[in-house]
Design goal:
single chain; alpha/beta; seven-stranded mixed sheet; 11 strands; 32% strand; binds S-adenosylmethionine
Amino acid sequence: MPITEPISVRPNVPVPNRYGAMCTEIYDLDKPPGSLPDVPFYLDRLVGTQGPILEAAVGTGRLLIPLLEAGLEVKGFDQSPDMLASCRRHCAARGLSADLQQARFQDFAYDHAFSAILVPVATFNLIDDFAEGLAVLKRFHDHLALGGRLLIDLMPMGYLTNEKPDIRTWTAANGDMLRIEGRAVEIDLVRQRRVTHDRYERWRNGRLAESELEVMAFRIWGLAEFQLSLAAAGFDQITVGADHQPGRPPGRSSRILNFEARRPAA
Ligand SMILES: C[S@@+](CC[C@H](N)C(=O)[O-])C[C@H]1O[C@@H](n2cnc3c(N)ncnc32)[C@H](O)[C@@H]1O
């Protein structure tokens, strides 16, 4: 098999960044709707926004739901049927109706413009190719109204070479132990790309009842590289902060970078 053949065409190898059933179940246990410190940050940044907002790769609705509950008009798309099904369940349980579509960053399309587009929790890093990332930024730009804002959170560069395994456990409602073991299997410093194998497991009475492999492929952007890419896609008023703390500049210990940019008003 030639080494250049993309993972996605190899038989029996999971499509990268699939977010399947066990991944969704654990996402919901680990990050239920309304969790994580970015929620008050986004509520604050979006207060008073007129017109529809788009959350790209909306997932389980972790952020979408508190935004809807605050009275904002938010729509979302995601490529994972499992994550979207969870989002629909969470919305229904709260009597919320949301416009949700199955689509990818690379091909989403709406027939109207948005006042703001959000890409929280470093999900943009799951676009693992530079040219594709640039094309998606242009697609965001073209889906914003004049003066509309793009808010994107990215992992800092240090994540590219982090080789520490990620091992965590949770207890499901029925008492099963759910476990993830994630390891970097490929770090490409030239393409700024990293692949991890995340093994999801369900343990019952000390026996492995189920397991799933998620192949996760990321591209890590340099800070100035991303600012230049936003400008190349047509954005202005580009700012970057850190850790969802307004006014905090990025530094050595930053855990997440918070970019904001505007489609020029005219
Ligand atoms: C870390 S979760 C974030 C979910 C949600 N935005 C949140 O803040 O909790 C990443 C999401 O990106 C979705 N995703 C991954 N690659 C995608 C792509 N190419 N197009 C659309 N969605 C994608 C996954 O299905 C998953 O729901």
